[in-house]
C-alpha cells in the first residue's frame, strides 16, 4: 500500500514540474484582447476646385463707375476728365497707368507683369469716348467699368501671363485710339491676345428685340437679346473658346447664377472681310496686325434702341445682365492668364 502511495506522489510531483516548464498540455489560450470600437470618420469629399475660381464681381462697384461717367465724353475737356477718373481708380488698385498720346487723342495703358517671362500677355481693353450728345452709359461706360473691375480683382493676382489694360480714345471717330495702340509693333511681339469690350450692359427679353446682320457663320440662338456675344477670328480660336467655359459662378458668390447670361461665340473667317458688321470696334486693328482679339458685346444697335442717343443713360443698364457679362469677362481673363500655351489656331495638317 505504501508503495502505491509513493508512486502516486511521484507522478504528482512529475506533473507539477512539467507544468512549471511550460508544457502545452491543457494550455489555456490567452483571452482575446478587448479592443474598443471607435467609429472611423470618413473624410468628407471636398468640392472640386476647377482652378482657383476668380472672385465675384461687385455689381455696386460696376454701377458706380457708370454713374461717375454719366456725362458726354466727346470734347477734349470731357475726355480729359474721363482720363482723370480712370487713372485715379487704377492707382487705387495699385496700378501705374501711363498716358500715351497720339495725334488725335490719348490712350491709357497699364501693365502687371506675369511670373513667366516667356508667356505672352493678355490685354483687356475698352474705349472711353462717346459720340456727341450721348452720355454713353452702355457705349461705352459699361466696357470701361468692366476693365476697371478686372483691374481691381486681378491686379494683385500672380499669374504666368502678364495682364495689360488699355482704355482707347477716339473709337467713335474711326478706331483711332486702337489703331495708334497697335502701331507700336514692338509691344505686339509680346501680346498673346486682346479682349475688347464695347457695350456690355443692355439686354432685352421680348421676342423680336434682337436683330442679326447677314452672313453670320452660326445660327442665332433666339430673337431675344438675352445673351452676350463674343466675336473672334478663326486664326485664334483658343482665345475665343476661353469664353465657352467662362460661365462658372465663383463659389463665394451668392445668387449669381441667375445673372450669368448665355454666351454666343462667333468665329469669323477671313478677318471679317465677308462680314463687315463684325469690324466696327477696337478689336479690328488687332486682327489686321495678326494679333488674336475678341470683341465682347451686347450687339449694340442690333439690340438697344438707345445706341448713340441721349437716352443711353445709367437707368437703361440691365443690372443682372451687366453683372453677369462682367463676371464672364473676369472668368475668361483669369483662365487665359493662368495658361502659357500659344493661342494661335494650328492649321489643319
Notes on the structure:
This protein is an alpha/beta fold. Helix content is 30%, strand content 15%. The chain has nine helices and eight strands. The protein has helices at 2-20, 59-68, 76-92, 137-154, 176-182, 185-188, 237-241, 284-288, 319-338; strands spanning 98-102, 105-112, 121-127, 163-168, 191-197, 227-233, 262-268, 293-297. Strands 1-2-4-3-5-8-6-7 form an eight-stranded mixed sheet, with helices on both faces. Helix 7 (237-241) links the parallel strand 6 (227-233) and strand 7. The longest helix has 20 residues, at 319-338. Residues 1-51 and 251-258 have low confidence and may be disordered.
Query: What is the H/E string?
Result: HHHEEEHEHHEEHEHEH
Using only C-alpha atoms, the radius of gyration works out to 34 Å
As laid out across the biggest beta sheet, the strand order is: 1-2-4-3-5-8-6-7
Helical/strand content category:
alpha/beta
Shape: globular
Q: How many strands, what sense, and barrel or not for the largest sheet?
A: 8 strands, mixed
C-alpha end-to-end distance = 114 Å
Give the rounded overall mean pLDDT. Answer: 84
Q: In what range is the share of β-strand residues?
A: 5-15%
Number of helices: 9
DSSP E strands, number = 8
Question: What portion of residues is helical?
Answer: 25-40%
Amino acid at each position: 500500500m505504501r508503495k502505491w502511495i509513493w508512486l502516486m506522489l511521484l507522478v504528482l510531483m512529475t506533473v507539477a514540474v512539467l507544468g512549471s516548464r511550460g508544457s502545452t498540455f491543457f494550455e489555456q489560450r490567452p483571452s482575446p484582447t478587448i479592443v474598443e470600437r471607435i467609429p472611423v470618420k470618413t473624410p468628407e469629399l471636398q468640392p472640386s476646385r476647377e482652378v482657383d475660381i476668380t472672385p465675384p464681381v461687385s455689381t455696386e462697384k460696376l454701377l458706380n463707375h457708370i454713374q461717375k461717367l454719366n456725362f458726354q465724353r466727346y470734347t477734349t475737356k470731357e475726355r480729359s476728365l474721363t482720363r482723370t477718373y480712370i487713372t485715379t481708380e487704377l492707382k487705387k488698385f495699385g496700378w501705374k497707368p501711363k498716358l500715351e498720346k497720339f495725334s488725335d487723342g490719348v490712350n491709357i495703358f497699364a501693365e502687371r507683369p506675369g511670373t513667366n517671362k516667356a508667356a505672352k500677355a493678355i490685354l483687356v481693353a475698352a474705349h472711353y469716348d462717346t459720340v456727341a450728345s450721348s452720355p454713353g452709359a452702355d457705349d461705352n461706360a459699361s466696357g470701361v467699368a468692366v476693365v476697371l473691375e478686372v483691374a481691381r480683382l486681378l491686379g494683385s493676382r500672380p499669374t504666368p501671363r502678364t495682364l495689360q489694360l488699355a482704355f482707347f480714345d477716339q473709337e467713335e471717330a474711326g478706331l483711332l485710339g486702337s489703331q495708334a495702340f497697335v502701331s507700336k509693333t514692338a509691344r505686339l511681339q509680346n501680346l498673346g491676345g486682346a479682349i475688347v469690350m464695347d457695350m456690355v450692359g443692355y439686354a432685352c427679353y421680348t421676342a423680336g428685340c434682337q436683330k442679326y446682320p447677314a452672313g453670320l457663320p452660326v445660327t442665332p440662338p433666339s430673337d431675344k437679346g438675352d445673351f452676350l456675344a463674343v466675336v473672334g477670328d478663326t486664326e485664334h480660336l483658343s482665345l475665343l473658346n476661353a469664353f465657352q467655359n467662362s460661365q462658372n459662378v465663383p463659389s463665394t458668390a451668392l445668387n449669381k447664377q441667375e445673372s450669368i447670361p448665355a454666351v454666343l461665340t462667333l468665329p469669323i473667317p477671313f478677318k471679317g472681310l465677308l462680314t463687315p458688321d463684325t469690324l466696327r470696334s477696337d478689336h479690328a486693328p488687332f486682327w489686321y496686325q495678326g494679333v488674336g482679339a475678341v470683341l465682347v458685346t451686347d450687339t449694340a444697335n442690333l439690340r438697344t434702341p438707345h445706341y448713340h442717343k441721349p437716352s443711353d443713360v445709367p437707368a437703361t443698364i440691365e443690372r443682372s445682365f451687366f453683372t453677369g457679362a462682367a463676371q464672364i469677362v473676369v472668368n475668361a481673363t483669369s483662365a487665359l492668364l493662368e495658361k502659357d500655351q500659344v493661342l494661335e489656331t494650328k492649321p489643319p495638317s
